[in-house]
Each structure stands twice: as structure tokens, then as C-alpha cells.
């Protein structure tokens, strides 16, 4: 802790004004600094030593964030913490949609400097400029800010102002942390707008009430949990929290298995993500401004949720929905008919996952009711090449993302037809569609073996297939688990991510990759010869081309000579642009 002490010479001490000497001592907090309970008559259960306090604080890792424009921002959150939250509603460039936020530190230099730095006494802050001290401390995690507050009085006052100015906070709450400690930390951030909690302890109504009381201006709340923790929030408690938070715009929560039933009423809520739902007896929605909803049900065969009634109520209570994601084994054609009857005019993204009873008739209903869809995810359904043909006929001018993983009735002909008829397509997922009937599935892309099994009424394609794709806009292509694919020819200049995991029967001599923009190739659980063929083709494509522009014949055309660089300056720019196409390195991920 010695490194935190600022230099304070006797000369500096002698320059303190009389007004500062007469300044009275400020009374400390009436609450315990470790657990947040009142000090009077209180014996803290936590150790009073500095070591134990530092350890308890270190277990909560996060970054409070403010910026020079004093506006709410966010930061990219580790995707591993969103193992249950569906990503299909937010596919964008470079997966920005994993969190829906930007990195606030990247925009500081471009923001207008309208934020007023607090007045900090140079003598009490180690003679550092106010802007320098502020910018250094605001980049520390909460553990660092709590440690800096113990250095001196000036730093303590500055950290208090940093807490009050923080608008984004990410916390990992350990299992031994108490609700009072979390509440005392949240109360420091009076201007908090975005809160992301990673809970390793159980979530109950006390924690939800603590958040509601400590963060009156909260707009974005995201709660994830570890595998060992339990979410005990009931539907009534969730409904009261959403109704009381009149500023809440986005709410995401994992582990909602204890809801039972819920009724949500909010005029400000725009995004709602709930996962691990199970056997809901009643669902009521009254959210007129809700634009995105994601409901993931637990993968249990005894789920008794009435999805038809749920979708009907959703359509009447949320007329402005644009993005819908529902994942459940109980999805059927009747649910699709209820969704089309809702007539959601603004619908742009539709994701109905794991519905084995969704057929080509369901695709026809969707195409006739919502002709402007930009994303369609029917993974795990029973649609065939005929359904793909209907999609191509209706959405050629709008569809950019098509996900048809775990659809065993689809063949390579349907995939080729989709890439030929959808010119705006940028992302396509066809994992586990072209499967080898004699091979046992060993893919690791899903943790539930039930997802790898086709529906009982599906039919296997008994011959190996080849796939030829030529597309000018395709950027991401996933063929994971296509063990029935033995030949692949790709001509996609914009393709930067290719997933060939578990393509075990793909022959190296029947592989052709004409994709100069490739950056990542996933080849886990593939033959070594195939991996070698991929590496050879990528290295050959990245090899430098012969500079033919630097050669020139004499006037009589008798001999080619090497031209100096300065003479050939007219064509050097075009040559440089052509060389940059294959200048980047492509990564082959095999584990």
C-alpha cells in the first residue's frame, strides 16, 4: 500500500491556508463499510483485517464506466457468460450483438469534451492535475477504486465523485457476498444506468429489491448466473419489479425456472430476454413499446406451457415487436398460425428454434404474413428444400441471415438454391443438415444429445453430397456436423468465417476454397489430411504475386527489362490495392 501514498513535503504542508486548517472533520458513515449494516450495536461477521476485506472486494470484479460526454455506454461482455441467452436476435458485424453495446473507451477521443471535471485540490491529490487524476482513477476496476479511496482524503473524495458519475457497472457477485455489501456498493452509483450482474450466489427477492432501491434511474439490467446458483425469483416478484422500474428499457435474466406464471406491464420496456422457462401456467404482456423478446424454455419433455395462448397474448399486448425468438420443443404449426394472426407489421427477425412440428406449411404461413423479414431461424424444424424454395421466392430483397441447423430434411441442392437466389445473404448456418447415416454424432457444438437426433419422421439421405456455393456477399458460413458432405467448392470473396467442424467425410482433393477474405476456419474433429489441404490452399492464396507491372519491353519490342520503381509509379497504387487482398493471415482453429 506504500505505492499509493502521494508525496507531501513540509514545504507543501506549510502552504496550507488558514481556511483549510479551520475546516471541521467530516463525520464518517453510520453504516459498516464491509457489510453495509448500521454500526450501532453491530458486530460485523466479516474479519476486520485489511487482508480479509481486500479479498472480499477482489472477488467482485467489474469496471464502472463514465465518459466525457456523460452519456450511457456499455462494453463488450464475455460471451461465455451468456451461455443461455440466445444470440440469434442480434447477429451483426463482428458479433457486436453479443451485448448490444459499444466500448466506451474507444470513443473518448472522439467525444466532445463537455464534461466538467470536479475541482480537486492539488495539495491533497499528490499535485496531479484534476483531469489526470480523474482519468486514471476512472479506469480502475471497483477493487482498485476501493483501494484508492484509502490512500488519502483527496483521493477518497475523487473516488466518491467517480462512483456518483458511473453510468455502467459490471459485477461478479461471489457466493459469500451478502446483499448488504452489494447494496452499499450500488448506492455509491447514484447515476447508474446500466447494470450487469454475474451471480455465483442464489438470486432471490432480497437482491431484486436491493437493485430496485439502490438504482432508481436504471435503464438496462442483465442478470446471469453460474451453474451452481439458483434463481428463486417468482412471477409475481418479477412483475412488481418491472412495473415499479418506470425507466427500465432492457431486462435480461437467466434461470427463470421458478416463475410459474407472470404478468408484465411496462410502458418503457423495449427488450426482454428470459431463459430456462418451464411449465408456465399464465403469461400476460402489456408492453406497448416492447420491440425484442427472447423466451427460451428448458429442454424438458414434460413442459406443459401453452405456447399458442402465449403467442396470442404477446401479439395483442406487444404490437410493436420487431424481433422474436422462441426456443421450445413444443413449437408447432399451430403456434406459427397464432403468430401470423397477430399481424405484427414491424416484425423483422423471427427465430423459432427446436420446433420439430414446424413444416413447409408453417413456412408458407410466415412468408404470406411477414414478407419483409431480415432474419429467419428455423433450426431444429422439419422443413425441406420446398420450404427453402418458398423462402427464396418471398425474401430475395430483404433476407440477410438464414439459420437452418439441425434440419435433416434439407439437402445440398436446397442450400445451393438458397445461396443462388438470396443475393443479400450474409450469414447462413446449415449445421447437422447433411449427415452421414452410418456415423455416430460426436460434435461438441451442443451440450444436449437430443438436439443431434433428427425427428422421428425425418429421412436420411443415403449418398454423400457435394456443395457448390458462389456468392458475392456471404460473410459467415457454418457447415458444422455435415458428415455426409464429401465435396465442397466455395467462391465467396467476402467470406471471413467458415465452420467445418466434424465434417469427417470431406475429401481433401475435393475441397476448393476461393475465398481471399477468409480469417477464421474452424476444423475441429476433422481429418488431418483435410486440415493440411485447408492450410495449403490458404497459404497458396496468401502467397505474394509476381510483380508483372514492373517489367517493360524496349521500344522495338525485343527484350523485357526491369523498370525502376519511380518510372512505374503510375500503376503502383493499383498493384498495392491488389496485393492487399491476400495480405492478412487466416487462422485455422482445430481445438
Give your account of this protein's structure.
The protein has 591 residues and is of the alpha/beta class. The model is unreliable at 1-23, 47-117, 441-462, 545-549, 566-572 and 575-582 (pLDDT under 50). The two termini are 42 Å apart. The chain is built from 16 helices and 22 strands. The strands form four sheets. It has a 15-stranded parallel β-sheet, with helices on one face. A three-stranded parallel β-sheet has the order 14-16-18. It has helices at 10-14, 18-21, 50-58, 130-137, 142-148, 153-165, 179-187, 205-214, 235-244, 307-317, 333-341, 360-369, 385-394, 412-421, 528-542, 572-579, and strands at residues 168-173, 194-199, 220-225, 250-253, 261-265, 271-277, 282-286, 292-297, 323-327, 349-353, 375-377, 401-403, 427-429, 465-470, 476-478, 485-491, 497-499, 511-514, 520-522, 551-553, 560-562, 587-589. Among the domains are: 128-165, Up-down Bundle (Monooxygenase); 463-542, no CATH class.
Amino acid at each position: 500500500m506504500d505505492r499509493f501514498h502521494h508525496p507531501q513535503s513540509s514545504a507543501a504542508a506549510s502552504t496550507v491556508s488558514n481556511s483549510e486548517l479551520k475546516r471541521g472533520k467530516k463525520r464518517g458513515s453510520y453504516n459498516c463499510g464491509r457489510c453495509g449494516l448500521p454500526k450501532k450495536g453491530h458486530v460485523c461477521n466479516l474479519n476486520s483485517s485489511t487482508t480479509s476485506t481486500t479479498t472480499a472486494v477482489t472477488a467482485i470484479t467489474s469496471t464502472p464506466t463514465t465518459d466525457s460526454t456523460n452519456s450511457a455506454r456499455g462494453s463488450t461482455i464475455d460471451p461465455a457468460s451468456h451461455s443461455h441467452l440466445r444470440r440469434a436476435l442480434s447477429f451483426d458485424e463482428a458479433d457486436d450483438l453479443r451485448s448490444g453495446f459499444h466500448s466506451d473507451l474507444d470513443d473518448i477521443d472522439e467525444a466532445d469534451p463537455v464534461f466538467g471535471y470536479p475541482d480537486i485540490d492539488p495539495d491533497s491529490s499528490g499535485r496531479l492535475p484534476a483531469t489526470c487524476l480523474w482519468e486514471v482513477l476512472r479506469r480502475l476496476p471497483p477493487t482498485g477504486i476501493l483501494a484508492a479511496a484509502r490512500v488519502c482524503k483527496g483521493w477518497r473524495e475523487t473516488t466518491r465523485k467517480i462512483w456518483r458519475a458511473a453510468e455502467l457497472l459490471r459485477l461478479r457477485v461471489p457466493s459469500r457476498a451478502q446483499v448488504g455489501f452489494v447494496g452499499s456498493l450500488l448506492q455509491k452509483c447514484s447515476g447508474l444506468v446500466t447494470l450487469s450482474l454475474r451471480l455465483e450466489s442464489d438470486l432471490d427477492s432480497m437482491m431484486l429489491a436491493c437493485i430496485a432501491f439502490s438504482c432508481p434511474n436504471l435503464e438496462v439490467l442483465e442478470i446471469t448466473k453460474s451453474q451452481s446458483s439458483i434463481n428463486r425469483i417468482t412471477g409475481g416478484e418479477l412483475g412488481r419489479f418491472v412495473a415499479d422500474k418506470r425507466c427500465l428499457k432492457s431486462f435480461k435474466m437467466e434461470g427463470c425456472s421458478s416463475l410459474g406464471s407472470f404478468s408484465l406491464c411496462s410502458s418503457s420496456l423495449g427488450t426482454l430476454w428470459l431463459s430456462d422457462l418451464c411449465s408456465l401456467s399464465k403469461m400476460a404482456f402489456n408492453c406497448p413499446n416492447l420491440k425484442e423478446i427472447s423466451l427460451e424454455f428448458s429442454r424438458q419433455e414434460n413442459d406443459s406451457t401453452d405456447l399458442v395462448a402465449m403467442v396470442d397474448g404477446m401479439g395483442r399486448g406487444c404490437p410493436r415487436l420487431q424481433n422474436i425468438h422462441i426456443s421450445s420443443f413444443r413449437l408447432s404449426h399451430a403456434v406459427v398460425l397464432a403468430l401470423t394472426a397477430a399481424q405484427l407489421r414491424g416484425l423483422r427477425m423471427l427465430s423459432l428454434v427446436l420446433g420439430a412440428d414446424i413444416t413447409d406449411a408453417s413456412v408458407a404461413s410466415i412468408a404470406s404474413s411477414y414478407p419483409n423479414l431480415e432474419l429467419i431461424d428455423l433450426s431444429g424444424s422439419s422443413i425441406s428444400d420446398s420450404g427453402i424454395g418458398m423462402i427464396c421466392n418471398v425474401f430475395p430483397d430483404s433476407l440477410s441471415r438464414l439459420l437452418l441447423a439441425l434440419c435433416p430434411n434439407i439437402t445440398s441442392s436446397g442450400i445451393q438454391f438458397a445461396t443462388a437466389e438470396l443475393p443479400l445473404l450474409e450469414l447462413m448456418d446449415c449445421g447437422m443438415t447433411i449427415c452421414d447415416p452410418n456415423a455416430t454424432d460426436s460434435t461438441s457444438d451442443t451440450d444436449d444429445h437430443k438436439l443431434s437426433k433428427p425427428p422421428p419422421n425425418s429421412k436420411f439421405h443415403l449418398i454423400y453430397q457435394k456443395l457448390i456455393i458462389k456468392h458475392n456477399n456471404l460473410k459467415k458460413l457454418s457447415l458444422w456436423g455435415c458428415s455426409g458432405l464429401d465435396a465442397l467448392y466455395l467462391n465467396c470473396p467476402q467470406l471471413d468465417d467458415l465452420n467445418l467442424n466434424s465434417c469427417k467425410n470431406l475429401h481433401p482433393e475435393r475441397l476448393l476454397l476461393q475465398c481471399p477474405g477468409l480469417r477464421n476456419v474452424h476444423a475441429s474433429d476433422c481429418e488431418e489430411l483435410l486440415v493440411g489441404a485447408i492450410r495449403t490452399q490458404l497459404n497458396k492464396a496468401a502467397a505474394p504475386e509476381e510483380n508483372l507491372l514492373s517489367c517493360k519491353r524496349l521500344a522495338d519490342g525485343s527484350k523485357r527489362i526491369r523498370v525502376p520503381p519511380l518510372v512505374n509509379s503510375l500503376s503502383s497504387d493499383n498493384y498495392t490495392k491488389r496485393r492487399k487482398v491476400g495480405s492478412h493471415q487466416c487462422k485455422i482453429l482445430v481445438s
